[in-house]
Amino acid sequence: MDNETLKDYLANNSQVITIFMEKATDFLNRKNEDRAPARRYNDAEIARQADKMLDDVIANIHDKIVPHTREQTPAAWEQFLSENDVLDDLELSMTELPFESED
Fold it and tell me: Could you list the mean pLDDT of each consecutive 10-residue stretch along the chain, which spans 103 residues?
């Protein structure tokens, strides 16, 4: 399963992406408020940055699961995710995920 397929699967079968995007967007908006008014990002740029952050998280999740699946088919991945309650664990992780500035 590639990153895009994993992202689609998570979007259709859990709240992982929704939770992450809400937290990431809130974080980026708070960070944006600290910028000078003339340098603030518009909503489209905030959305692009949140999407990039999401892509990094999906890649990280993918890299953590790859060693545990023998076959790289969507069916094998779905079985692994289901048998190991990965979606529930990911949702919990996303709700507890801290977003902090790198100042």
Answer: 94 96 96 93 96 96 91 89 92 89 54
Question: Which residue pairs from 53-61 have beta carbons closer than 8 angstroms and sit at least 24 positions apart in sequence?
Answer: 53/20, 53/24, 54/7, 54/17, 54/20, 54/21, 54/24, 55/3, 55/7, 57/20, 58/3, 58/6, 58/7, 58/10, 59/3, 61/6, 61/10, 61/90
Beta-carbon contacts of 14 under 8 Å, excluding residues fewer than 6 positions away, are 87, 90, 91
Structure tokens at 75: 């069916």
Contact 17, 11 (CB under 8 A): yes
Whole-model pTM?
A: 0.88
- Alpha carbon distance, N-terminus to C-terminus of the chain: 36
Predicted pLDDT of residue 48: 97
